[in-house]
Each structure stands twice: as structure tokens, then as C-alpha cells.
Amino acid sequence: MFEAILLTVITASTPLVIAALGELVTQRSGVLNLGVEGMMIMGAVAAFAAAKMTGSPYIGLLGGIAGGALFSLLFGFLTLTLVANQVATGLALTILGLGLSGQLGEPFAGQPGLPLPEIVIPGLSQIPFFGRVLFSQDLTFYLSVALVIGVNWFLFRSRTGLKMRAIGDNHASAHALGISVIRTRYLAVMFGGACAGLAGAQLSLVYTPQWVENMSAGRGWIALALVVFASWRPWRVLAGGYLFGAVTIGQLHAQAFGIAVPSQLLSALPYAATIVVLIIISHNRRTTLINTPASLGKPFVPDR
Predict the structure, then answer these.
(1) What is the pLDDT of residue 40?
(2) Cross-strand pairs, 136
(3) How far is residue 259's CA from residue 146's CA, in Å, rounded to a whole number?
(4) Is the pTM of this model over 0.85?
(5) Which of 28, 88, 135, 178 sees the fewest Cβ atoms within 10 Å?
(6) Measured CA distances, 290 to 151, 196, 258, 296 (Å)
(7) Phi, psi angle pair for 120, to nearest 5°
(8) What is the spatial distance between Cα 62 and Cα 41, in angstroms, rounded to a whole number?
(9) Helices 139-157, 2-28: inter-axial angle, 10-degree rounding
(10) Helix or strand or coil: residue 136?
């Protein structure tokens, strides 16, 4: 019983971790993209459509990544090239993504999906309890763990990651040192979009192997909160993602057990937990100021 619950927690947490890691890299470059929800739902419909048309869930996975990355280019063009307001553009991107995905996904509504198969690691999957939980999962779970390790190394161990953090902290100084601010931010935005698209693909190919309109169900906003919760640190994103995933699955099991609490209140639990965590974090202003990229959300216009 406990093993089954843990498996569902992992499945529910994986898209949150992936989407939050992409947004973390984007924000580390100094760009605030509030369109995670829109990119995620576009990734979900692109992944489902690609899988159905090709008969391969792995091509569907690539379709979801491409869908999120291409949709993020719209945000990049508006905010980095045309210097539009990042907050307003991100919100518009979410609204556009929710509407456009519903239109594109209408022909696929009600059709059975092509779920990603589990990848069983020989030997390790036979370990009692942990083998089934950790070493017999779908590809997106392994990718989420690899992304945490890779993003952590990139940001804090590589020269390119150091340049990106420098841009996020002071884009004017970075530009004066010869670092290409706009190009780096475009790449960061596309990476964030690709991760959001991958998270959306996990929803339509693993979590619920079918297309349902608005199936992201606010997960993009939770991913945004996770970045702040993690203080822009990849390993904390992993811990926070599983915390919120556990809350989500916990409310579902509470309803199944017939706990005498209104179902609407239980459904609101993950979002209530998000608000509570943000309130707690806001009290520690020193840690927040130290870790927040100083140029986050500020437009940059290079000297001509």
C-alpha cells in the first residue's frame, strides 16, 4: 500500500520538478517568465498529438519538448527583442497557451493515449521496496533526476553557468565585460520552455495518458512558487517538488478514505500549501535577497 502511494507521489512530483528547474535557469539569467503554465499545456498537447500521429510515445516526448521551446520563443521575442513587460507577457502567454491548446487538442479529446513504458534497470529493480520505486520508472523520472544534477553542475561548476549568473545579477556589468546578454537569455528562455514542454508531455503520456483540456491544472504556478521556495537552488527544487507532490496525492487519498472534509477544500490543499510556504519564506528576507538574481525581471537594452 505504502509503495503504491509512493509511486503515485513520484509520478505527480516529476512534472513539478522538471518545470521548476527550467524556470530556475530562466530566472537565473534575469528573466521572469510567468508563462510556465501556458508552455506546459502546449507541451502536453504537442506530445499527445505527436505520439498519436507517429505511434511512438518517445517521439511524443520530443514533440512536447519542441512545443514548449517554440512557444517560449514568442515570449523571448516580445520581452528580449521588443522589450515588452515580462510580467504582462508571461500572463498573456499562459492565457494564450490555455486557449490555443484547447483548440489544437479538440480532435484528440477522448482518444486513448500511448503511455511511456517503464524502464526497468536489471538488478537494481530487484532491490526490496526501493528497487520498484526508484529503478522501474518511466524515462521522465530519470530525466528529472539527471536535470537536477546537470543544472546544479552547470550553474555552480561551469564557466558558462557563471556567466549566466553574472547576467542575472548585473546585466549591465556583464555586457560591459563582453558577455552576450540577449543571446544567453534567449537560450535560457528556450531551455525553460523545453523543460515546461517536457513536464507537459509527462502529464499527457505518463500521469494521465490522454488529452484533457486544461490538464496542467495550475501546476505551472506551483512550479513558479517552487523556484522561490528552493531559493533558486536545484537540489531544493527536487525536495520541494516531492513535498508538493505528496500534498497533491495526500488529498486524493484523503477523499478515497472518506475523510469528512469537503472535497473542494481538499482539492485546494496543494495551492493552500503553496501560499503557506511563500508566507514562511517571505519572513526570511536576508536569505531571499541573497539568492534572488538582482536583475530579475528588469529589461535590458544593449548600447548601440
Answers:
(1) 97
(2) 120
(3) 38
(4) yes
(5) 178
(6) 20, 26, 45, 13
(7) -95, 120
(8) 15
(9) 40
(10) strand
- Domains of the chain by residue range: 2-291
**268: phi then psi, degrees, rounded to nearest 5:** -85, -5
- Alpha helices (H) along 158-233: 159-169, 171-176, 181-202, 219-229
Q: pLDDT tens digit string along 7-23?
A: 888 899 999 999 999 99
Cα–Cα distance, 59 to 94 (Å, whole number): 25
Q: Average pLDDT of 163-177?
A: 93
Strand partners, 120: 136
C-alpha–C-alpha distance, residues 287 and 265, integer Å: 32
Query: Cα 123–124–125 angle (5° rounding)?
Result: 90
**Grid coordinates in use for 138?**
518511466
Segment of 18-22, 216-220, 237-241, 259-263 carrying the highest mean pLDDT:
18-22
Q: Which fold has domain 2-291?
A: ABC transporter involved in vitamin B12 uptake, BtuC (1.10.3470)
**What residue has cell string 484547447?**
102
Q: For residues 43 and 68, is the Cβ–Cβ distance under 8 A?
A: yes
